Each structure stands twice: as structure tokens, then as C-alpha cells.
Amino acid sequence: MEQLNHQLFTWINATPNSPKWLLDIALFLAKDMILIVPALIVGLYLWGQHHNINPQRTLVTKIGIALVFAMAFARAISELFPHARPFMEGYGYTFMHHSSDSSFPSDHGTAIFTFALAFLFWHRVWSGTVLLVIGLGIAWSRVYVGVHWPMDMLGGFLVGILGCLFSQLVWNLFGTQISSLLDKLYRFSFALPIRKGWVRG
Fold first, then answer.
1. Is residue 196 predicted with pLDDT exceeding 80?
2. Which end of the chain has fewer CB atoms surrounding its CB within 10 Å, N or C?
3. How far, rounded to the nearest angstrom, does the alpha carbon of residue 39 sit from its chain's CA centroid?
4. pLDDT tens, residue by residue, 101-142
5. What secondary structure, in 3-state letters, does 129-183 show?
6. CB atoms within 10 A of CB 149
7. Is-contact 137 27, C-beta < 8 A?
8. pLDDT tens digits for range 151-182
9. How many CA atoms lie within 13 A of 43 on its CB side?
């Protein structure tokens, strides 16, 4: 498996001769594209058509549960089974600064794939598919700039599936109570913006 991991990395990783425009795209995807996750979470929870706002908030809540579980599980794996990043092994080329922590599974991969799978399972096929394509772009970019192995991204995808399964289980058991509690907390915390009509009540 490690041999395959290294071989795939060699095929994907950029070199000093790689086109600058492609490297610029990869750096944008690797650094900034993940911001789509918090942006959509906030947007879907605060704004929307009246008939859509409750389903949107249910979706966001389930995504939140899935992300918390997935990120915690990913961190536990990285602590229990640390794996060096490519540049820590002096392997390939690196075009982005990154701390020398464990690479498996990828935090970026875990977050974006959990998010994309949640839309695929609980929203629309088209929205989940679009986000999966974005997730693949982020996964490619993190390998391309040399801070992750390909298997780190596969690990993030698998952890994302577990996160969604866990969230669905929690929702089946406690969904009504969670929705009620969050609605009360939201209405208390955002009383003024709701009254002003800045966000959806």
C-alpha cells in the first residue's frame, strides 16, 4: 500500500517545471476553497425562502454533527497512527508551508468530503455531485503542492462516510430534541437581527 501511495504521489505532485498557472490554481484550491464549508453552513442557516428554511437548518445541523464526529475521529486516528507527510520524508516537491504533523487522514479531505457526502445524502444529487467535484479538486491540490499523500485523501473520504452515518443515527434518535434546542438558542442569540429582518426567523 505504501508503494502505491508513493507511486500515485509521484504522478500527481508538481515539480519545479510545472506550469505556474496550474500551481496557482492548486494553491487556491489547497488554501482557500475549503472556506466554502463555513460559508454555506452560515448562509443556509441564516437565509433562505420561508418554505425552505426549516429543511435547510435540519441539513446544516446534520452536517454539523457529521463534521464534529468526522474531525474528532480523524484527529484520533492521526494521534494513534501518526504518518509523516511527504516533505517530512524528503519526498517529492513542496510548494506550500505546512506544519509537520501527521498527514493521515487529511483534515481538509475529511471536512470537504463529509460536507459533500452530506449534501449527496440529505439534499440533492446535483449539489452533492458539485461539492464532490470540488472535494476532488481540493484533494488533488493538496497532493499536487506536496503536503499530503493520495491515501490521506481516501482516508478523509472514508471518515466522511462514517461521519454522515453517525449523524444520521444521532438524528434518528434525538433529531426532534436537537432541533428544538437549537431553535430556542438561535432565536435568543439572534433576536435583534431577526426582528430587524436581517436574518430569517
1. no
2. N
3. 12
4. 999 999 999 999 999 999 999 999 999 999 999 999 999 999
5. HHHHHHHHHHHHHHHHCCCCCHHHHHHHHHHHHHHHHHHHHHHHHHHHHHHHHHH
6. 28
7. no
8. 999 999 999 999 999 999 999 999 999 988 98
9. 6
